[in-house]
Design brief:
There is one protein chain. The longest helix is centred in the N-terminal third of the chain and has 15 residues, at 88-102. 40% of the residues lie in helices and 13% in strands. The chain is built from 13 helices and eight strands. 45% of the residues are buried. Helix 8 links the parallel strand 6 and strand 7 (188-192). Strands 1-2-3-4-5-6-7-8 form an eight-stranded parallel β-barrel, surrounded by four helices. The protein is α/β, with parallel strands linked by helices and 310 residues long.
Amino acid sequence: MDKLCLGTAQFGMRYGVNNPGRKPSREEVFEMLDFARLEGIMLFDTAPAYGNAEELLGEYVRLRGLDTSFPVTTKLKPGVLEESPGNARHVVVTEAQQSLKRMNLKQLEGYYLHTPGYLYHDDVMEGLQQIKESGLAKHVGVSVYEVADALFAADSGILDLIQLPYSIFDQRIDQGDFFERAGKNNVVVHARSAFLQGLLVMDREKIPQHLQGARVFLQQLDALLEKSGVNRVQACMLFSLTHPGIDALVFGVDSLPQLQQYVRVAKDPPRCPELLEELHARFQHMDRKIILPNLWEPNPKGEKNGGKKA
């Protein structure tokens, strides 16, 4: 349970290819947060880009009196440097302070760049260093899509927290020495997208037209799981939770029953090392158009499926 981090994208916005369009109510969100804390989930992930998620967390923190005991990671708003040209270091620090104010917190567990390209701006990195040194956040880092950005961050000497995609279908980060470098530099690694925004647990018959290329791989996945008596949710979660280089799994939910299901898997996981080895071997190299949601085409209604993270 100590490797679980509850993401809040679904709390503030419609999110994911497998989301029927519902957004949980304020009462449902608070019920899920209460349950998560009761079950031992001790880390929560959010971002200004996730609709009103930060404000909801702030209201929860105020009502529960958790200003010094609610560990949250959040992120620098995407595109904020372009919106507020000038002193980037000042902008980075100010944005972190505003997130703390919105969430009624005194300190963040972690503060990420939500735009990986900001990694390469010295003044942005200086801002992150100031955030950590001043105690606004215990850790500073970046949320990435690409392996090259993860490697740069791991060797930065400033960042000590990296959030990256990792799933049965997206094993790119294993194909190199990232985890060795992260360990050497005391960088904490949080994995997201274990369910690939819901694609990996989606009914094959309901997959949208622009993702039809995934159907054959889901069929192959189902064949492997059937032999082991493991379902897709269990396989997806264990694939990340059992990785020795991953310190936490960031996952999102839109209902209490869904959260309860995930907690049951974490508390009583099936023992299936042979299956996990097969999954590693079978799905090492996947088409980027399947594994990167930011490359997914808009659905017929014109709504974006990709580009945001859980």
